[in-house]
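Deviation from plan, reported transparently: 6-O-phosphono-beta-D-fructofuranose complex.
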Amino acid sequence: MINDTAWNRLLAVAPQRLADLFVAEPDRLSRLSIEEAGLLFDFSKTHLSAGLIDGFLALAEERGFAAHREALFSGAAVNVTEGRAAEHPAERGQGTPESVARARAFQARMRAMIDAIEAGALGPIRHVLHVGIGGSALGPDLLMDALGRDTDRYDVAIVSNVDGAALEEVFKRFDPAATLLVIASKTFTTTETMLNANSVLAWMEEANVEDPYAQVVALTASPEKAIEWGVDETRILPFSESVGGRYSLWSSIGFPAALGLGWDAFEELLEGAAAMDRHFRLAPPERNLPLLAAFVDQYYSVVRKAETRAVFAYDERLRLLPSYLQQLEMESNGKSVKADGSAVEGPTAAITWGGVGTDAQHAVFQLLHQGTRLVPVEFIAAVEPGDALDEAHHRALLINCFAQGAALMAGKANGDPARAYAGDRPSTTILIDRVDPARLGALLAFYEHRTFANAVLMGVNPFDQFGVELGKEIARSIEAEGTDRFDASTRALIARAFG
Ligand code: F6P
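Because the crystal trials were delayed, the predicted structure below was used instead.
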C-alpha cells in the first residue's frame, strides 16, 4: 500500500457520487472543462472533487513535479536508467537551444528529401512503403489514417508485422518501379523491420528494378548501421538517440506523413504539439491538462483499483488512437520499479484498451454499464465532421458519444436487477474543433505529457522499456541454438510447428 503523507491525505477524502459532486460544486463545470489549442477537455464527469484536486496538488508538490517537468524541457538526463535526456519536445522547438538546433537541422534534411522526391530525383515515385514497428510505425500510421484520407499526393502503406501476409497485401497493389522503400528503425537492428526491408528489396529485384537501393530512404538514430545495410548516406534521415521510439513521430520517423501530407501539414502538426508543450510548461497546476488527466488516472488506479482505462474514438479518422496510446502508456509506465530501482508501492500504468464509437457500443459497452469492474472511459470526438454525407451521420455520432457519458454517470433504477444501471461510472470527454494537423499534434502531445505526469507521480522512468527485451533474446536464441534449454511446452510447440 502506498503510504506517505500526500497519499494518506488523498485516501482520507470521502468518496462522493458524481451526481452529488455537481450539486456540491456549482462551479464544477467551469473548473473542470478546459479549452486549449482547439481541444476541449471535460473532466467534470470524473470523481475529481475540489478536495481530491487539492490532495493531488499536494502529491505533485511532494513528488517534485515542477522540477521534473523543468528537467524534461531543459535537457537533463530524465531517462536515468539509460543516462540520457528525452528530447521529443525539442522536435517541436521546446528544449535547449542545442537540441532544438539539432532537431531543426534534421528536419531541414527531411524537407530537402521531400523536395527531391517531389522533383523526381529518386525516380517516378508514386508509392511509399514504410517498414517499421512499434514507435517506428504506430505514429506515422495514425497520422496518415487520420489526416491523409483526402490526399492523393502519394499512396502510403505502413507495414509493421513480420507476418508476410502484411507485405504481400501491399505488393499486390504497389508498382516496384514506383515504390519508395522507407526503412524506419531507431536502432536499425529490429528483426521484423530488417526482414521486411530485405523482402521489399527482393521484391524490387525480382521485378528487375534497375537500382533498388536508389529507392531506399532510412529513418534512424543509427546511421552507421543503415550504411552497413546498404543505404546511401545521402538518403539517411537521422534523428537524435535521445528521442524515444514511442515519442518519435515528430522526428524523421514522421517522414512518410510529411511526404504524404506535405511539409506544411507536418509543420502545423509540430506547432500544435508546441502549443500543448507551452500549456504543460506554463499553465497553473489546477488548470494543467496533462497533470489533471494524470490525477484522474492515479485516482482510479490507486484509490478505486481500476485495472484498465478505455479510450473510444467517436471518429473514424482517430480509430488508430487506442493502439497508439497502448504503446505510449503501457510501454512507458508498465513498470514494477521506480526510477531509483526500488520497488513501486502501488499499481503502475493501467491497461489501455478501447475502440471506435459507435461500433464499440454494440460490442463492449454492456460491461462498462453493468459489469462488476470499474473502467474509467475517455471519449474523443470532433465537432466538424470528417464526411460529406447528410449531417444526420455526424449528429448521430456525437449524440451517441454524449449519451454514453450521460448514461454511465446517471444510471437508471429498475425493479428488475438485470435491467438496472448503477450509474456513477466516470468518463472524460475530449472534444476537438476539427481533426487537422495542429489539433492532432496538440492531442498527441497532451497524451505524451499525461504519461510523463503519471510517471512523476508514480516515481517511474517512462523513457526506458527493458521489459521488451527478454522475448526478443529468447527468439534469437531459439534461432541460433535451438530449443534444448527451454521448457517442455515451448519445445513441443516448436516441434509441432516446424517438425
Ligand atoms: O521492442 C520495443 C521497441 O524497442 C519499441 O520501443 C520501439 O518503438 C520498437 O521496438 C521499434 O524499435 P526500432 O525503431 O529500433 O526498430
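The radius of gyration is 24 Å. We consider this an acceptable substitute for the interim report.
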